[in-house]
Each structure stands twice: as C-alpha cells, then as structure tokens.
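Anyone? Bumping this.
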Amino acid sequence: MAISRRELIQGAAVGGAGLVVGGVVGKVALGDGDGGGGGAGGSGLSGQAQKVATDRKLSADDVTRAVKTFVPPGQPGLDTHFLFSSGGHSGQILVMGVPSLKLLKVIGVFTPEPWQGYGYGADAGDIVLRQGTTSAGGAVSKERGMLTWGDTHHPALSETKGEYDGRWLYIQDRANGRIAMVDLRDFKTKQIIDVPNLESSHGGCFVTPNSEYVHISTKTPTLTDRSKAASALTNFKDLMRGYSTFMAINQGTGRMELDRSFQVELPPYTQDLADSGKLVSDGWVFINSYNSEMAVGGNAEGGVPIEVGASKNDFDMMHVINWKKAEEVIKAGKSRTINGIKVIPLDVAAAEGVLHLIPEPKSPHGVDVAPNGNYLCVGGKLDPHVTIYGFDKIKAAIDAKNYEKIDDFGVPVLKYDAVVAGRIEVGLGPLHTQYDEKGYGYISLFLDSAVAKFSLGEPYFKGDQAFKLVDKLKVNYNIGHLVTMEGDTVKPDGKYLVALNKWSIDRFPVVGTLKPQNFQLVDLTGEKMEILSDTPIGIGEPHYVQAIKAERIKAWEVYPPGTNPLTMEKDPNAIEDGKDRLEKRGNTLEAWMTVKRSQFKPDTLRANKGDKVILHLTNVEKTPDATHGFAIPRYNINVSLDPGECVTVEFTADAEGSFAMYCTEFCSALHLEMQGWFLVIA
Amino acid sequence: MAISRRELIQGAAVGGAGLVVGGVVGKVALGDGDGGGGGAGGSGLSGQAQKVATDRKLSADDVTRAVKTFVPPGQPGLDTHFLFSSGGHSGQILVMGVPSLKLLKVIGVFTPEPWQGYGYGADAGDIVLRQGTTSAGGAVSKERGMLTWGDTHHPALSETKGEYDGRWLYIQDRANGRIAMVDLRDFKTKQIIDVPNLESSHGGCFVTPNSEYVHISTKTPTLTDRSKAASALTNFKDLMRGYSTFMAINQGTGRMELDRSFQVELPPYTQDLADSGKLVSDGWVFINSYNSEMAVGGNAEGGVPIEVGASKNDFDMMHVINWKKAEEVIKAGKSRTINGIKVIPLDVAAAEGVLHLIPEPKSPHGVDVAPNGNYLCVGGKLDPHVTIYGFDKIKAAIDAKNYEKIDDFGVPVLKYDAVVAGRIEVGLGPLHTQYDEKGYGYISLFLDSAVAKFSLGEPYFKGDQAFKLVDKLKVNYNIGHLVTMEGDTVKPDGKYLVALNKWSIDRFPVVGTLKPQNFQLVDLTGEKMEILSDTPIGIGEPHYVQAIKAERIKAWEVYPPGTNPLTMEKDPNAIEDGKDRLEKRGNTLEAWMTVKRSQFKPDTLRANKGDKVILHLTNVEKTPDATHGFAIPRYNINVSLDPGECVTVEFTADAEGSFAMYCTEFCSALHLEMQGWFLVIA
C-alpha cells in the first residue's frame, strides 16, 4: 500500500497533526508490547515472573526490590519525584526520576554542551557562558581564555514559604566562585554570574525561604589585593578574607541582581557548607568552616600539609549570620562597595551583631537546618558525633552576650555549652544531614560507609527518645552526601533516601580506570532502612542533590512561538512560516530562516569570504518533541531549536568552500534530506 | 571511640590497604541492606512483593518485566551485555548495561569533558582534541577556532575473524568528516583524525572482519576545489565528489595510520550508511546513497527543496567496493595523493573493477550484511520494503558484466533483477537491519513506529519459509536504528534488541522543551517480541549502537605506575612517591608532583607573572577507584588522574593572584583539605 509522496515528504505521518501513525502495512497483526495482560491493579504475580526470578537467581528480596523500583513502559507518572543533582566537575546538572533512578536530562550549565546547542553559536547560550567569565570576581588568564567548565556542588530549588515551588534552580561553581540560574519552564541555564570577591565557593547554593536571596560563600579565602600574592601565605591573616554572599533574586524572573545583592566579610577560616534558617530561624544563615587554624601547607618546604594543619584544633567555627540585620546595615549605608558589590566589612559585621561564631567539632562538614528551623545538625567529619544546636539557645546566647571569647578578628564566639541541644555518637566520618517528616535526621558516615538515623529533640521527640541513634545502614561505598525527598524544606516527604556514594569499587562492571559514582536508593518506609538499588552515575561527580515531588514541576513542552530562551520573550527577529528572507548589505549577509520538517528556508546561503553572517533561526513547529538542529560543518556551530524557539547566530565567513548545513536532531522521515548549502566564495 | 588522627588523615580507613572500613561505632547493629533474605536461587515470590505490586498498580506482565530487567545491588554481573552507543551531537559515546539499561559511562570523544579531565589542560586529552582540528580535511574558521564538538553516529568495535574482540572502538563525526579511536583498556580517546577530503561523514564506522581497516565515507560530497565555491551547486557534477575511506589500523596499538590508508573516489550521490562484508563477502564493502538525483535545493530561489529533489527517482545507488582489489590498485601505483592520502580516482575505480553500483529503492537508509556474509538488507525508507541482495548473485553479475547501464561517471550499474534475492513488504519507513543467531533480520520502521522481524533465505530458511515477515512490534516512537546483541558480527547472540526511538513524546515526565530519546529494551526469546522497558537518554542523540557480551571487555582498573594515557606507556616525567621536586629556571617553573590521599606534593607553587609553568602530575595510588582531580581556579584547568596515571600540564602564569589548586574528585575523609596554593607574583 503506497502512501502519497507528499505525505511522506511533509512528514504528515509524524506529528503533522500532533499524532503518530500507528497504522500497519502488512499482514501480521501488530504485537503491542505495552503490557496489558493481567490488568491494572495487580492480580497477583505470575508463574512466569517466578520462573524468570529463578533463572536469574534473584532472591525473594531482590524481586521485591525490583517491584518497588520498576517504572513500567508508558507509565512515567510512577516516577513520583525528581532528583536535581550537581554534576561536580562535569559542570552540569543531572535530572533523574525516583524510584527508577533513570537519567532524564543533563542540563548544560558551566560547560558548553553541543547536543543542547549550548555554547556553540546560538546567542541564547553563548551570552550566558560569556557572562560567566569576567574579571569581576578575579583574574582571568588571557592565554587559557574563557572559563568552559565549572565544579557544580550545590543545587538549590526556589522556595515559597519554605516549600519547593518548582520555578527556578540555582547552582554554584566551586572552582571559580560563580553562580548560575536555571529556569524550570524549559530546563535551560539563563544566567551565570561571576561573583565579585569569590575565588572559589562552597557554602550554597541554598535559597532563603521565600527566595529573597540565594546564598553563596567562599571556600578557600580570597586575596584582597592581588598585587600582594607574594605574601598571601605569610600574611594570610591580614590579606585573606571570606565572603558570605546574598544574591538578590528578582521575584518575577528568578534572575539574580547584583545591585541589590550584598556580602558579609568573614575571617579566612575556609568556609564550607551552609544552610538557610527557616520558620523560627528565618532571617538567619549558618556556615561551617574547617580551617580556622588558617593552615597554609608547605609540605615540601618544612611546613605541614594542609590535611594535618587544618585538623589540629578540636573545634572550628560555625558562622551565624543575621541577614535581616545585614539588610538594615546596608540600608544605613555602613557598607563599602568592592568590585561592584556592597560589602559589610568584618569589623562592622561584628559590631552590628550581623556575625557571630560558634565552636563546632572538629573539621566539620555540613550544617543542616531541621524542618521546624530550630535544630542545626553538624557532622563532625573528624569527630564521630553529630552535634545538634538549638536555634532558640543560639538566639538566647546572642541576646545575653553569652560569649566564650572574642576571636582575633573581633567576632564574638558564643559559649559552646550554651547552644548545644544534643550530641549523638553516630560513627566515623559524619558529614551531612537530611530529614524526614517524622522528626528523624539521617546523616552520612563517610568512613563507616553508612547512613545513621537519629531522633531530634522536642517537639519531635521527648525525654530519652530524643537525640538517639535509632538505625544504621551500610552503603557501598564511602558516602558523601545524601538526600531525602524534599528533605531540605519545612515539609519533608520522607519515603526515599538516596545515598551519594563516592567510591563504587566493585558495584559495577569495570569500564576503565575512571569508575562511576554510585547512587543507592534507600527505602525509608519500613522499620529499618533498606537498600533498593544501585545506580551508576555515567558522567560527573554529584556532590549534593535536591529531591522534589514531580507534580511541582510544570515544565513547558513547547515555547510560545518565536521565544528566545535567554529572554523568555518573543525575539524581535522571530518570523512565521512563509516570512523567510535574505538580505545582502555590503559585507553583511543576514537571513531570517524558518526551520520545520523537513527543510530550512532559505536553504542556500552565499557569502563572500570575510562577510559578517547573521542568521535568525525560528523553529515554526508547534508539536511537542519537534526539535530541530542546525549545524554548519567546520565552523564549530551547532544549534538546537525546540518547537517555537528562535535564536541568532553571528559569525564571520572566514573560511571559503562549500559547507552542507544540516539538521542534527532526527526529526522526520526526510531528516537526512533536511540540509542546505552554505557557500563561502573567495 | 576515637581513631587516631594519623589514620584519619592518611585515609587509612579508606583504601589504604584496598579495603573499606566496615566497622561500626555505636550501639545499633548495622542493617545490611544488601538482600539475603530468601536465599539465592529464588525460593518463590513473596507476599511482600505481591503487596507492592498491588499498591503500585503493576500488572502481572509489568512484574515480569521488572524481574527480567532488574540488576540487584551488588550483582553487576547480571548486566550480561554492554551497549556502546553514539551520542549524536553531544559528540560523545554512551556505555550502558543490558538489561538494566543504566548508564555506566559517558566517554569524551569530540567534545571536551571536564569530569574526565579531557581537554582542560592535561596533555593526554588536549593533544588528541587538537589533532582533530587541522586543515587537512578542509577549511577551518580561524575566528570560530578549534572544533570542540562532533556529531557521533556510528561506533565500531574491533573484530577478529568477524567477532568482537573487545580491544578498540572507533566512531566518526558526521559534521566534520573525522574519526576517533577509543582504547577499551581505559575507555579513553586516543586519536582523532581529520580525514582528508571529507567534509562530512556517515558511512562508517565499521571495521573489516580482522580490523585491517576502519571505514568512513562522505555523506554530503566534498568540493574538490575550494576556490570554486561559487559554482559548487551549478557545477555539482564536476566539482563534487564522495570518498570511501579505508583507514588502516595498526594491529598492535589500534591506532589509525594515514600513510597506509586510502580512498576510493565516488560520484557525488550523497553516500549514506555502509557495512563491511564478512565470510563469503570478506574483502567487500557496501554503501547506500540517497541523492543520486544530485538535487541541490534552492527553495527560496525557484528550486525545489532537497527533501523533494532527492526523492524524485525510484532508485538510488548502492556502491559495491572491492577493497582487496583496491589494495592491489594502490600497490600498482594507480592512485593520486590528495591532501595527504592516496586516492583511487573515480575513472580508475570503475575501470579496475574496484567500484560497481546497484540500484536500491528508493532513498534507502541502511545496508546491513547478514551473519553469513551473503545477504545484504537495505531499508527502503520511502519504499515500504526491505530489499535483500545476495552477494553470490552480485559476484556473479560482476563476473558476467551483467550491467543495466553505465552511469554518467563511467561506473557500471548491475542489473537489479539479477542481484535481488528477496523483497519483503514490512511497513512504512524501513531503515536499518540487525540479526539474531537463528537467521532472522529485524528492521526498524520509522513511520510505522515499529520493528519488523523477517526470515532470510537459504541456508537459514527455505522455500516458503524464506523471506517472510513473521512478527511486528509497535515501539514508542519513531524508531531510527536498533541493535541486537552482537548483531553486527558473524555470531549474533540474540536475546535482546534495543530500539533507538527518536521521539519520546509522552513516555517520560516533562523535563523542559528538549525531550530525551527513548531506548526500548525488547525481549527476543519468546515467540513474539516484547517490550521490557523504556529508558530515557539524558544526554545526546544516539544514532547507532553496538552491543557486546560483557565478558569480552577486559578493561583496566588501574594503570601501570606512571602511565600516560596518550602513549599507554610510562611517561618519562612520571615519578614515585617521595621523588617530587620543583625547579625554577629563569622564566620557567617546572614541578614534578605526586598526587595521593590527601595532598599534592609540593603543595605550594610560586611563579612570577608571565612565567611558563610545567607541571608533571603522577597519581601514585595503586588502589582501584583512587582517582584524584587537580584544578587551578581561573585558569580553566582541570585534570583527572586515575591510579597510576601521569600527565603534564603546560601554561603561562599570565594572571596574578593566589589560586587555591585543589582535588576535584572526592577521594578521602580529608578530600577538602587536599588543596594547595598557586601564587602568581606580579
């Protein structure tokens, strides 16, 4: 049975009307592989399943695990949550479904990514990546050029009243002290800011409970005068500073605005993780540190390595920052502007009560605020306890000026005993805590390769039920962070925990010398925690994850016609089908091109060598999944255009020849024929 | 219970002796989440599993699917096969396990990838990527600079006697006409060659049955004289040529050697896919084409779009190349050297019997050689048949000079009826065929969104059992290619098929406007084909996959001490633990650094602004998974060092300040303290 050539060519059979042809040509009845036998609701497990389990040597518990994690074909809703995971030094974000743990998307953030057309000629992505390399934050090497990678550590979902609202996602670059923003309508990166005065970053991102700010602080401190590098280490105390940064968020667009942002100057204690207060502690922010010893290394010149020097003291310092107070201080004009951002100097921060310190054992990693905002859990890292501070006690100590001492920088240090609510011995190498909806905390134990579950105090648990270790689960292996469903919010969802294991060792087949990380899915619904599955992470090194109920994400499937992803508004050069045109003006060739199944129009571009070429490309499709690509060989150009999307590509035609520009994203039966010619004439 | 600081600092608890600490500090017994209940061998499915299935509304068939595809924690061997998938315009390779379909690794090939330290300062990767941009293959834009992406389509595993041998993997870049080689000992890219005379590529990669050559041919033809771009389209027939390229493989190292390679010049028919003969057809290679019409477009200037012009004729041309004959022709000196490679000109190829043509309907996509080497299956794409040619018939027609005509380029066209063995109507949009071990072919139907299973002829099936459509399976949606286990070899393994669907539409949660592709795992062991699972592809657009038995891959877990991945030999600058040193010679700072848990030694580097800096880094660990990173903020440098690995980083210290160089890959309890200082003094 022939179908008309016109139908084939126009791809009418595929998506022309938004439908996919399901018809059959041929005499054999279509097998519908999509399940069906047995009916919905489960009429019991079949003998066939039992036979397969036996053949594959699966235990009964393994079968249960399989049934708990399987997302059947055609039932995507059974992935009830999403993980937004940092990609570590891949510089990207990984999006995965729970409980399937399948990888749904890699979002290009700090590293150019050509499949998404991010950083390969289209203005929308190129501008963002270029924004990310300026001299605002510090020196940039001319020879090495633009920054084309980042070390993403901490994703932060936007919040309203302390719950995730599914609008925006922020993430920071540990290596270069930068912060990016992703719009969860189209899952694309819209902004990278090279944060002034940050040469590195760790503490953040997280947002304040109504997304007023997204926080990012230094890790290794910044040299305040770059011309003094020679004495950076010998005069560390005077020349180096940390910065707690509050990047102001535009409540309409989610973009960060430097002019409304501010920093609080900190001692050079090498700040580490951070978290926002919520509810009773809304308005406050807490940051660990782990090198208040201010060790500088020198292992080949008579000094001790930093791993020794930074571990000397029994306590490091938690920074307690009152950002609402800081806002007042800024408003009162008591700040300096350094490299384009308002900074509250260290002495002012101390004098105005913006900054206090609290001793925390011993080179801690992780300060995590409980759902009610009153407890702060700190993993001791080199101390086998989780130390739990009470915000009510911290507030009381501040008000009563209950100080242990004043540190060398003039900052008051609160009395340790006055602010600790509880302390539980949990195991070796405690790092990072997340919470469930029942008043339990879950802390990762790097050295023990385990997760410890413990109870908080009142109002969750009272008397001898409070501050107790209640369960411990071995993981594989050497867990860094973990995440529970919505565990960072005022209303955790419990159900699952994902252990982000750093070493996979023997858990996966050997695929070369660089082994993947291991995400282990843990069931929290039983009396004891139980591992359900191992999942290799094929690209990147996740450090921290946020897990959100899938229903909160309301992403777009198509763009409003002519949208430029950078502005999220109609591009002035967007065109409708049939309105394509070409203009040659002196040494400039400008084209307004439509892109659809299965041609670019115009499909032939002729430039003279040296011409400036400006191409405005509009995907005029309206059907979900009707993405097209546009590549120009040899010119390192690849654009990805989703339905409705419009971008501009600008370059110089400095290489002569004939270049077959083509669609990179398989779009139709005649996808291969979706090609044109770009001629550069000498 | 305290453990000594020394133990913690040296990370003795983690991997010091290759072991992970499993001990417990604390009063709660460790829960071992790793299964165990029920025993191996399967004692039947539990009531608990049944309850879960009911709660999650899984049908009995879904439970069976879950049990068929689940790989339990700690049992990686249950992934019996690997997929090596192209990443499309991500420019990378994806490695996945079967049947779990989990992503084990993304291999950086044409696109820099910082997690692997590929293209971010380390010589091993930088050299490879730089190799990939030369002017040998064609013009390169100075303004746009180095090529930093590719469009990977066809991975090819090395073969011995027509079976996969697990040593090397090749893949081509459709966009720029390049080819890369990956070493399957460490799963890293070792070579990129910008193939002379190729401006694009599709036909390949595949290897000849003993890996003598890896093949790559043009897609859109090359302009033979770049100064004539102005008449490229009007004088297409004279100025444009295709090239079938045989890249010679060094049998010891797997590297490609241009001086032993050669090309056969082809008419500008826009060659498409290709495959190698095997067994009876060993020594021959077959390439589709789809624009023998030589349509050039011009949709905005009175011409017809290419999608119409290229679909005009009822037949395009399959190219049949006798490469053993070609070798003789080269040896006899009947070639020209063009841009550094020996080329057999078109007229010589025709005259010497190196090249013949066969009509193939209608704008075909896919020529796939059956396991016994005698059948070639061609998907009609715009013709709803699979056309099956017999190599015995082709050989006979060639020997008898049984021609239909001589084409405009002097190439003989064999008589269609003389070489067709069978023709089966399979459905709309047939593309690509793979095989099982029983004599069946499986062909993808893009427009029907289905897979059709058909029987071959003798010796597999005889009489009316031969050349029959036997089954058809709906897939979701719009399948491009497919792969069966070892389906490209002389001994396919059957068992599973993976459908590489281009459109996912509603199969996954909405994660923005760019939707993932869908890999559907299909069970071939039953009477009817059956879909087992859907898997989203989070990055890239796979085009073609090769599936290999996992046991054939013998990858390394560590390097021999001091190995540079580029040479796979000991680096002359590799050092042992304790042999670190620093040299300042005038304007050059050179350091030989050791890298191990948890310090770089030396950890302090002082350069004067403008100095040349040369760092030789050796990871002196011996334990699997003890990978370290090395990043220099602001200088766009990130290195990844696996156990035993040694690389060199060279750059100019042209930006002053203090830069906290640090380990990017979480390696130990004191990973954060694994940091040093790089001071650049003005």
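Late reply, but here is one note on the structure posted above: Chain A has ten helices and 45 strands.
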